Amino acid sequence: MKFLRRTLSDEELLSWLETGEPRRVDKLLDDPDTTGRLERLTALPDSDVATLNELVTPADGFAERTEAAVQSRVSDLERVGTLFGLLGLGAQTAKTFTSKDEPS
């Protein structure tokens, strides 16, 4: 047996959505028709969408500059790693020469 529910007005839908209460919002999101209405009611004007897109769009060349900076940093870290590896090699060599253990 299916229960009939009354259709909420646009104002009621928006007020339920603004409460943020899961028990209310979940009910709204279960119904595709209601979800479509909410999408239309909460849609931003095109001018606002354009402004937001403009604000979050990275500047020209951002990706290339970021990639170059990361590559430079990785290269620096590789050089430091090589330096420590060479210093460690010297220490291991000195330890081997000064060791009293006979090679097996």
Structure, described:
There is one protein chain. With 104 residues, this protein is an all-alpha fold. It has two domains: 8-57, no CATH class; 60-98. The chain has five helices and no strands. The radius of gyration is 32 Å and the shape is elongated. It starts with 9 loop residues before the first helix and ends in a 6-residue tail after the last helix.
Query: How much is the average pLDDT?
Result: 83
Structural class by SSE content: mainly alpha
How helix-rich are the residues, as a percent range? over 70%
Number of strands: 0
| Cα shape | elongated
Q: What are the low-pLDDT stretches, counting only 5+ consecutive residues below 50?
A: none
How would you classify the quaternary structure?
Answer: single chain
Question: How much of the residues is beta strand, in percent?
Answer: under 5%
Largest sheet: none
End-to-end Cα distance: 86 Å
H and E order: HHHHH
> With helices defined by DSSP (H or I, 4 residues minimum), what is the helix count?
5
Count up the domains: 2
The radius of gyration computed from the alpha-carbon positions, rounded to a whole number of angstroms, is: 32 Å
Structure, briefly:
This protein has 5 helices and no strands. With 104 residues, it is an all-alpha fold.
Question: Layout of SSEs?
Answer:
Elements (H helix, E strand, L loop, with lengths): L9 H10 L2 H9 L1 H11 L3 H11 L5 H37 L6
